[in-house]
Amino acid sequence: MRRREFIGRFGLIGAAASTLFGRGSSAQSVPKRPLIAWTAAAPPGVKTPQFMVDLTFGNFVKGLLEFGYEQGRNIDIIRRTDIFPDRVPSIEEMVALVKPDIIAAPATLEAVAARKATSTIPIVCAALADAIHLGLIASEARPGGNVTGIEPYIAGLPAKQIELAREVVPTARALDCLPT
Questions:
Q1: How far is 84 from 80, CA to CA, in rounded Å?
Q2: What is the pTM of this model?
């Protein structure tokens, strides 16, 4: 066999091999689903009824489903109580072990602990209270950082509401607030 024939055949075999076994022909890898860490758990020594825990988590999952996110299909959710069978880990321990993409904190207590554990993973809190004074955000105008959520009380809002009520009904002698 001559040298040119050998190189020609070898080149043909190499091209066939790269087509069959190259990058483009390998099986497509399954994309990684985002992992949400659900941080709700009763503090040590506090007995929270299980139906309340399940109701809160169930409503969270139901809300995600309404937006097209289904657990096990296009997202994964891990609860703090699911990590160890015998104890509930701290939020810091959960973040270190699980390395979630998002941390879901149902209340301010969990958001504060999550913020102490990480400054890079986004933290979503359903009900923030006094976020500026707790160091969760820099200011309401420019929160910065990795914590977001809803703050039900806004400083100065009750006074503005009374002012508006007096404009609407200037002859009113008494005002009352109805909780929502």
A1: 8
A2: 0.68
